[in-house]
Structures are given as C-alpha cells and as structure tokens.
Design a protein that fits this description.
It comes from Tetraodon nigroviridis. This is Sulfotransferase. One of its GO terms (molecular function) is [heparan sulfate]-glucosamine 3-sulfotransferase activity. It holds the Pfam family Sulfotransfer_1. Belongs to the sulfotransferase 1 family. The chain is mostly helical and 291 residues long. The protein has a domain of 175 residues: P-loop containing nucleotide triphosphate hydrolases (Rossmann fold, 3-Layer(aba) Sandwich), CATH 3.40.50.300. Helix content is 37%, strand content 6%. It is built from eight helices and six strands; from the N terminus they run H-H-E-H-E-E-H-H-E-H-H-E-E-H. It has a two-stranded antiparallel ribbon with strand order 1-2. Strand 5 and strand 6 form a beta hairpin. The radius of gyration is 24 Å and the shape is extended. The chain starts with a helix and ends in a 7-residue tail after the last helix. It binds 3'-phosphate-adenosine-5'-phosphate sulfate.
C-alpha cells in the first residue's frame, strides 16, 4: 500500500506538472498573440465602460434611439443600399447623445477607409494629434468583422467629449479589399466629411498626408511636419515628444523590418497589380502612379 500511495502521489505530481505546463503554453501563446499586434485590433467597447450608468441612446429630438434598433445582415447585403438605408437618418448634425458621465456620443464626421497594412493606424494616430479630433481607441472593425452585430453595437464607439470632435474609424478590410474600400467610401461617406486615406508611400508622406487629410476633413491645418521626426531605426516618422512626454512611435507590429524581395518578384507583383491599379485610379479619379 506504501508503493501504491507513492505511485498515486507521483501520478498526481505528474498531472499538476502537466497542467502547469499547459497553462504556461496558453500564457505564452496569448503573449505572443498580443505582441504580434492582434490584441490591438480586438475592439473593446470604449464608450460603454460602465454598464451601471445605463447609457441610453437619445436622438437630438429626444427620441430613444434604442427602440429603433436595426440589425443589418452582412451576408444578405453588400456594403451598399442596406447600410445606406439605415444611415439615411445619419448625418453629423443629427447626432446621438449618450446620457452618461463620459460626455456625449456623436456620429462620425470622418472615417478612415483603408486596406490591410495600408498605414491607416499611422494616419489615425497622427490625426489624433489635432486638438479638434477625437478618435476611437481601438478600431471597431465594424465593416469587416462585426457588421452583423448591427448599428446599435457600432454606436457604442461613437464617443466624443467635445461637440466639435471628429470620430475616426477604420473600415473595410478583406478580399479584393481596395475595391470594397472604395465602394464603401462611395456608399458610406455621402453624408460625412470623408478622409480619403490613400498613399503610395507612407514613408515620405505621413506628415504632409495628415495635413492634407485634415484640410479635407474641414479641420484647421494644425498638424504639420514639426509634430514628427523620422526615426531611423524604425524607418518611419514618429510623434515628437511634447513637454515631458517621450517620442512616440507606433507599436512593434507597425513598421516591421521587411525581407529583401528579389527585383524579379517585385516586377511580377507590379505586373499583376497594374490592371487593378488602373481600375482603382478610375474609381477614385486620381492617378497614384504606383508603377
Ligand atoms: N509612421 C509609421 N510607423 C509605423 N508604420 C507605418 C507608419 N506609416 C506607415 N506605416 C505602415 O503601416 C503599416 C501598417 O498598416 P496598418 O496600420 O493599416 O496595419 S493593419 O492592417 O491595421 O494591421 C506598416 O506595415 P509593416 O511595415 O508591414 O509593419 C507600415 O508599413
């Protein structure tokens, strides 16, 4: 029975070692997941921090917006008419306000539309420097991941503490994404002032691009080159320190070192994308000269 007890004890120890081992694996996987930048993009309901405040959506005319909940079906509709219909009552001046202690929620006055890895985070972060800009913290991914959750869900991201604030969000990623983006832009931004975030090379043009965007978004030109410095290590512009704050570059998952691509591969890629680029120039009415 002594042997049996020892055996059982050993068995138990092995079991607990195993569970510690698996817990560590889980922790490291999660850590790696976050370090690779994915956690950033998982949306958190930043405006809905305290359920106890019983935030209610109130239209300007005093109607309770929550009774008008509509659930768009992402699978049955394109980003076009369905959304357009639902947004027919939307306009920057037809704002919703949220009765809670965090200020009022506003409809977006500007939207950043961008493809994956198009540099939309940089544009968002740089626009955020502008004193009249209020932007969501994490990207809601409404149009590419959570469209079927409906506008009520999306509304939780409409937060701004200042009436004139602008909310910037990022929409439209996916297959054939550049065209979907542009279609989205056409269908969605017919009422809001829209920032067209297209840049051939964000490396050189971040700051001026931000200025350009701010100008087109109806903002005073406040953000200029003097807000940035070029970080040699990162190979990208970063925010200059203000007062006692430190210089701020985007996280490790933005502006990563890229492998050397053989020139013949680059040529083949350019050939492949040429007709798509032409189609894109036609859609936007602008030649970006990506060749
Ligand atoms: N200032 C600055 N700092 C860092 N990175 C910059 C900057 N400006 C543009 N970029 C480019 O942005 C790329 C990431 O784009 P996104 O933010 O749109 O990526 S994501 O699709 O949301 O994951 C990122 O892609 P990678 O270089 O592959 O990391 C950069 O090429």
């Amino acid at each position: 029975s002594k042997w049996r007890a020892a055996f059982n004890f050993g068995h138990l120890k092995a079991q607990s070692k195993l569970s510690v081992f698996f817990t560590m694996i889980l922790l490291f996987t999660y850590l790696f997941y976050c370090l690779s930048g994915y956690c950033d993009s998982v949306p958190r309901p930043v405006c809905d921090q305290k359920k106890s405040f019983q935030a209610k959506l109130i239209l300007n005319d005093g109607h309770d917006a929550s009774s008008q909940q509509q659930q768009p079906d992402a699978r049955n509709s394109s980003h076009g008419p369905g959304l357009r219909e639902q947004l027919s009552g939307w306009s920057p001046s037809n704002n919703l306000s949220i009765a809670n202690n965090f200020g009022s929620k506003k409809f977006p006055q500007a939207i950043i539309i961008g493809v994956k890895k198009g540099g939309t985070r940089a544009l968002l972060e740089f626009l955020r420097i502008h004193p009249d800009v209020r932007a969501v913290g994490s990207e809601p991914h409404f149009f590419d991941r959570f469209y079927d959750r409906g506008l009520e869900w999306y509304r939780r991201y409409r937060c701004s503490k200042e009436p004139g604030g602008r909310l910037i969000t990022k929409v439209c990623q996916g297959l054939n994404e550049i065209f979907i983006s542009v279609k989205c832009w056409h269908c969605f931004c017919y009422k809001c002032s829209c920032i067209k975030a297209v840049s051939a090379s964000m490396h050189e043009s971040d700051a001026s691009h931000t200025g350009w965007s701010a100008h087109h978004g109806g903002l005073k030109r406040v953000v200029t080159d003097k807000h940035f410095y070029f970080n040699q290590t990162k190979g990208f512009p970063c925010k200059k320190p203000e007062g006692s704050s430190r210089p701020r570059c985007l996280g490790k998952s933005k502006g990563r070192p890229h492998p050397q691509i053989p020139s013949e591969v680059l040529l083949r890629l350019r050939d492949f994308y040429r007709p798509f680029n032409l189609k894109f120039y036609q859609m936007t009415g602008q030649n970006f000269a990506w060749d």
